[in-house]
């Protein structure tokens, strides 16, 4: 689907940040309030998956360098478990000042996507016999494989932090939790894991954004402060959680940085959330079929040129060949390879050469195939029809979460738009 080329991906650290903050806060919330808070978290997750009829989740994640906001992403998701429908809007401010947005809607019959970069809606209609009975927009993380073991590890790892949580009964019902750890109070094991986690998050974001201004932390990295709060309502559901982690360290140039990661999670409008398919009257729409838009007419050879700039001129040094050999039973098979002219191997050392089978998942608009790159590593790819006689190929795709992904291929050297080769 053409959306893959221009779609706005969520920040690479979003899921990691949420998990990290949740773990850090759980670390603090031991003692008399720990079991109560953990029980409230579990109850809230279970209700979000199957108990609540409808609700809204808001997430705000901010990464600051020495007090200056570098990256910020906000997500608003509306979920209706009764109607089995959801809407999701995401806005991301990057370090270069650019703002990216995207929108998606899904229910039992339709999926709709729109990127803020283009004035077009992509619509997929599911067939009547499509099996989507187990529709779940929110999957309870405590029911995932290995969750119980991870919970035991967290409990054991931070068992000495029993005195750093405050629990208060709220006049209107429910409880309020808060806690804070200074540099001296952070255990060595938690410090090591936390430092590695945030350093990895910064590295991931820098890879995703080519002109990222985030500092690359190199030495003397330690957790300076951790704090968090949580508010539970009288029904035992967590309405709001916040977390702050400040990491101090020195970058490659020797400059000192305090990197602060702030996460805010809100659960609201329980029973009053309304989810509606967007009004597409008069809108620019591109329909996407269950087979990714492919049919037997797409069988054939497609190519584009490998071009570099050398000595002030554009020079063709080879070709990219994409062959679709079969489209049957919703499965697309083919092969892709790159040829480089003798003498230009140094300019293009890692030429691709692989075969693939691609079967779009009827229940998941983000469908990929796997292949092996020149280094013998497994990577994800995606392919879809573009205009007449054209295909678009994405390589080295990194799946961020169930709603977003990004391509790590260097666009300076790769052109994913292929034209059909016609016999004269």
UniProtKB/TrEMBL annotation:
Segments for region (Disordered): 77-101
PROSITE patterns, A to Z: PROKAR_LIPOPROTEIN
Signal peptide: 1-26
Comp. bias (Basic and acidic residues): 77-86
Biased composition (Low complexity): 90-101
Record bears the keyword Signal: yes
Entry keywords, A to Z: Signal
Protein name stated in the entry: Uncharacterized protein
Organism: Paenibacillus abyssi
Taxonomic lineage: Bacteria, Bacillati, Bacillota, Bacilli, Bacillales
């Amino acid at each position: 689907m053409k959306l893959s080329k221009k779609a706005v991906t969520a920040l690479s650290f979003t899921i990691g940040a949420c998990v990290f903050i949740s773990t850090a806060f759980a670390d603090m919330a031991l003692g008399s309030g720990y079991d109560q808070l953990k029980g409230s978290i579990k109850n809230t997750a279970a209700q979000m998956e199957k108990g609540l009829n409808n609700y809204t989740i808001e997430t705000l994640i901010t990464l600051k360098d020495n007090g200056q906001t570098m990256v910020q992403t906000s997500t608003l998701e509306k979920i209706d478990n009764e109607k089995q429908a959801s809407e999701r809007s995401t806005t991301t401010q990057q370090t270069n000042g650019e703002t990216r947005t995207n929108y998606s809607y899904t229910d039992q019959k339709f999926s709709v996507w729109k990127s803020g970069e283009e004035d077009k809606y992509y619509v997929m209609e599911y067939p009547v016999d499509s099996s989507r009975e187990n529709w779940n927009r929110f999957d309870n993380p405590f029911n995932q494989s290995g969750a119980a073991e991870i919970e035991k590890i967290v409990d054991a790892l931070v068992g000495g932090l029993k005195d750093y949580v405050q629990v208060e009964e709220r006049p209107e019902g429910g409880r309020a939790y808060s806690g804070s750890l200074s540099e001296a109070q952070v255990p060595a094991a938690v410090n090591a894991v936390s430092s590695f986690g945030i350093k990895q998050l910064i590295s991931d974001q820098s890879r995703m954004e080519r002109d990222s201004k985030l500092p690359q932390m190199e030495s003397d990295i330690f957790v300076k402060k951790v704090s968090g709060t949580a508010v539970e309502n009288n029904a035992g559901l967590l309405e709001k959680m916040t977390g702050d982690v400040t990491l101090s360290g020195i970058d490659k140039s020797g400059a000192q940085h305090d990197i602060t990661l702030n996460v805010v999670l809100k659960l609201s409008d329980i029973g009053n959330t309304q989810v509606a398919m967007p009004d597409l009257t008069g809108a620019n729409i591109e329909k996407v079929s269950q087979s990714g838009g492919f049919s037997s007419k797409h069988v054939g050879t497609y190519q584009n040129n490998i071009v570099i700039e050398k000595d002030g001129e554009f020079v063709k040094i080879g070709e990219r060949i994409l062959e679709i050999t079969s489209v049957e039973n919703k499965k697309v098979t083919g092969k892709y390879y790159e040829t480089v002219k003798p003498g230009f191997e140094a300019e293009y050392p890692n030429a691709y050469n692989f075969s693939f089978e691609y079967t779009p998942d009827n229940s998941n608009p983000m469908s990929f195939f796997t292949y092996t790159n020149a280094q013998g590593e497994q990577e994800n790819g995606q392919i879809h029809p573009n205009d007449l006689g054209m295909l678009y190929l994405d390589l080295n795709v990194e799946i961020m979460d169930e709603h977003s992904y990004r391509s790590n291929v260097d666009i300076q050297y790769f052109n994913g738009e292929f034209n059909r080769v016609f016999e004269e």
